[in-house]
């Protein structure tokens, strides 16, 4: 009986961890305090008496980001760094602008699933499942289409039109984090040893140095 209870308790704990992204809130809100910097999991709460509407607000998501860069896309993030009131709420939002044929390079969010809505243009989107399948799940999206990228999985978007494209991404973390594969692998600081990367990618050192010089 006791062991059965223990087993059920273990299942309950495992499920709650598997379902959770950011830990859930224990109060109405916990607006991040910009002055106090005690290291906790999240950010320290500001005194609720001094909380105001602006702590829950951001302006400017109607403005297009500057896509004049090598990939032809720009992400305007609105997470807990922009809205202190998002602290402990487990959500955030972003606007993504794409130049014609621009790409939001393969990346992952270690702490969030993402729901992407196309507001303008057409996008090819995709994510890749875990090892060993590495299955590419991909789709063409048009205005009004919504697509989900499951937490942690590698994903990308590409503008497949001659005009600009715009999307809004909702994310299940106040601080989703971004790991852009090319930048992480070839632009780490300091560099990953070329011995590791020549073996990994099965190419010579000059090819690796070439890639490293770009990130
Ligand atoms: C966009 O970025 C490019 C490259 O950094 C820069 O030259 C250009 O002035 C920027 N455009 C605007 C409108 O800010």
TrEMBL record:
Compartment list: Secreted, Extracellular space, Apoplast
Residues noted as binding Mn(2+) in the record, renumbered to the chain: 107, 109, 114, 155
PROSITE patterns reported for this sequence: GERMIN
Signal sequence coordinates: 1-20
Disulfide cross-links: 30-45
Domain Cupin type-1: 59-209
InterPro entries: Cupin_1, Germin, Germin_Mn-BS, RmlC-like_jellyroll, RmlC_Cupin_sf
Top-rank taxon, per record: Eukaryota
GO molecular function: manganese ion binding
GO cellular component: apoplast
Short name of any one Pfam family annotated for the protein: Cupin_1
Keywords of the record: Apoplast, Disulfide bond, Glycoprotein, Manganese, Metal-binding, Secreted, Signal
Keyword Nucleotidyltransferase included in the entry's annotation: no
Annotated binding of oxalate, by residue: 104, 109, 114
Main subcellular location of this protein, as a coarse class: secreted
Gene3D superfamilies noted in UniProt: Jelly Rolls
Function text: May play a role in plant defense. Probably has no oxalate oxidase activity even if the active site is conserved.
Family: Belongs to the germin family.
PANTHER family assigned: GERMIN-LIKE PROTEIN SUBFAMILY 3 MEMBER 3
Protein name: Germin-like protein
The species this protein was found in: Prunus yedoensis var. nudiflora
């Amino acid at each position: 009986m006791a062991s059965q209870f223990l087993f059920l308790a273990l299942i309950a704990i495992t499920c709650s961890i598997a379902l959770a992204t950011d830990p859930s809130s224990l109060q109405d809100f916990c607006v991040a305090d910009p002055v106090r910097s005690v290291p906790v999991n999240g950010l320290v709460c500001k005194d609720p008496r001094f909380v105001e509407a602006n702590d829950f607000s951001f302006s400017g998501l109607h403005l297009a980001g500057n896509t004049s860069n090598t990939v032809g896309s720009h992400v305007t993030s609105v997470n807990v760094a922009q809205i202190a009131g998002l602290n402990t709420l487990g959500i955030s939002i972003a606007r993504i602008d794409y130049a014609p044929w621009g790409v939001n390079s393969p990346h992952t969010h270690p702490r969030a699933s993402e729901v992407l809505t196309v507001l303008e243009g057409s996008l090819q989107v995709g994510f890749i499942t875990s090892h060993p399948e590495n299955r590419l799940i991909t789709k063409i999206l048009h205005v009004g289409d919504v697509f989900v990228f499951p937490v942690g999985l590698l994903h990308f978007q590409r503008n497949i039109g001659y005009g600009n494209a715009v999307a809004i991404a909702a994310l299940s973390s106040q601080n989703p984090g971004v790991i852009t594969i090319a930048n992480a692998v070839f632009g780490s600081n300091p560099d990953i040893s070329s011995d590791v990367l020549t073996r990994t990618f099965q190419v010579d050192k000059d090819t690796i140095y070439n890639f490293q010089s770009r990130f």
